[in-house]
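thought: fold this chain, then report.
action: predict
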Amino acid sequence: MAGISTIHLLSLFALPPFWLGLGGWVALLGWGHHELAQNRDRLWGWMIFLLFVLLGLWTGPYLEPPVDPLEHLRRAHLLCHGNSTRLETLNYGLWHYSMVSDFICWVGPGESPEIKLRLIDLAHGFFWGLLAMGIVILARNAKLPRRWALISLIIAFFYFGTNRFSYFSYYSLAPSSSSLLLVWLWAARFFFKDTLREGLKGFGVALLLIPVLLVNHVQEAVFLILVVLLWWVVFSIQMLWLRLNRRGHLIFTLGLLIFGWGVPQLGGVQNFFLELYPQQHLAENAPNLFRLGGKYLIGPNWQVRIADSLGIMGFLPLFLAPWFLYPAWVFGSRPVGKKIWLLSVLPFLIYLIPLLNLVWAILVRFDVYWRLCYITIYWVGIAYFGYGLEAWARLGWWRWKPALFSFSWHTGRLLGVLLLAMILIKAAGVRSAPLYGKRDFIQLPSRPWWPAWKPLLEGLRHHGKVPIQTDPTTSAVLGGVFDYPVFRFRELSRSFAYTDFQWSELAKQCNCLCLINRAGFTPSWVPVETGHWSAGVADTASYYILKNRPNPSSPQYIAPSYCLVFPGSEVFQKGIKP
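observation:
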């Protein structure tokens, strides 16, 4: 952990991006190795890591324009051309993009585009492996056996994300992935500990991690603060409750209520946060927060993104509360079960408890308020519930054993877990409310433009580093994925509209290579079903409409003499420099 913080401190002294990123990989893998060794799961954990690296390498990140991964790749490419100090800004992913750049900087615009794509896939696979390792480490530290840790991983992999977008496929190249991994690893290492010594150690480690998270992605820095705060509340209850009489319980409960609901109403507390974090968003969020009698109570009106980010799986731990909290139940009587449940329903606690909500409302803009859903670990809670049901059967609470199916207990539970895994994977193909499975999204072609654009990309290798003037969709791919210098990167509206081809005149002024890409690509079901952007974005030919001329897809279209046209130009057919 100290190594991760050292990486951040060294970045202040102009540490080259390669060494900054390499140090990040070493620190994360070293921490994972340490945790796996503690649980005697080293070989098993590394097999999970390798499996997901290979799966990620096979699928690749989702790169259909105008998705965010194109922008994340562009930012990583910035580190290929300069020093890490160029990105010394809050929330700009310095550490994460340095890690990505370790893979993608080896191949430039003049090299094979296929090699470039494989390196991007490899970076994507490594983050898949790290996230998978983090989940199984968290599950094992939550006292789940390996089979149920695997179930938690399956749930996370196939259901975590927003709407139909898989978190694993959409955000692997985003700073939030490595930041969220740090939050998971902190929770695995410290949240389930019950001693003051471990608590103080965990608090110190959190202080070391917060600067890294702030530079990487502010959102997860807030997550860590909230998880640490929750741990201290739970620890205080555990330490004091058994030592108090009935009157003490009443006073202690009232104290918690005042602390959680009363303290946030004090102007001095809000001013303290303002001095601590001058860029806070409380003023802009205040009109949207629910108030009663002038008092600040809970979060804003329920946002639809909260519902489709959690889905039925995210809401399930809320309804399982009696099984976790009622002490007569086998697994609910264990303190670890209650802690798992609290982490599983933490988005709801943030929404309902003013103290937690105040922290979130101060540090996060209202338009991304729904991202509090990403703090949950509902997959561990659901898996722990299944583990509890298995324990019930073992103790005889449920007996049904026909002679025809007289399996041994060991065989029966393995078959049961296998059947559950198959049901979860099958159900993940339902990509609508309220389930929002992500299997179909994970299986999408990660770059639908590649089959049609391959000759174009091969031909561009011979044009050097002259800036390319082309349509926004093609610019997003050329600049983000392949690091070509493009004029006006990603000026792409999610609501596609036909435009005049007046910008072609700028090719002369900026000494750019004018490129008309008529190929386009077949859009996936994503823009149609989610409405996140227009499917017309994929029709690149529709951008090129000259005044008083027909659409370029028409045979009558005549391109300006200073523009290269794809498909149709011999430059791309023969792959020679004009």
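thought: worth noting. The radius of gyration is 26 Å.
final: tokens above.
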